[in-house]
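Slide 14.
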Amino acid sequence: MNKTWFCQASISVADDPEVLDWAARAGCRMIFIGIEAEDIDALTEVNKRLNLKKGASAYQETFDRIHASGIAVLGAFIFGMDSDTPEALFRRAEFMVNSDVDAMQLTTMTPLPGTRLFQRLEEEGRLLYANFPNDWAHYDLTKLVHRPKSMPPDELWDIIRQCTERVYDLRTLKTKARRTLETTGSMEATEFAYRTNINYRNIGLALGTLV
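Slide 15: predicted structure.
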């Protein structure tokens, strides 16, 4: 196709090396995977059945197989689940930094309309913004829009800010880029991942979660 691109897939995309090989030949340079968490309780809460079935211990093998095809991994992680404690969130940030995920998406748990999560939090009176349709603007995955169970909203937001600073520190991103080049052997995959990380860093700067 003479194009380079990235896509979204489940963690099972790494089960078939031939799929990865043909994806790379067709120009795929990065795959977005909803990892969400490295913790069993958190994965159960967000109903990540496939991740639970494989187990968090299988993440590294998944990353290795994708990298062997010259493709980078964009891993998405959620912060602010009911099972999350301050300690769990800091561990998640460290996992993101130290794992072989190449690009990192850190999002705040967001109860989107039409989901069971939204219905439950609405019934429990835990939505911080419920003046619809005007308040839909807050539901963009970057803001805290619900009252968590394990800590006050202000405390959770402060922890998310600290984790964001840790994850998107420029030294971390440069280290990630060097590692991506080593594991994929692809400058294009490295560039995809590094630019994605910089984009997320810029979003954090714009939101004030990074200084």
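Speaker note: The mean pLDDT is 90.
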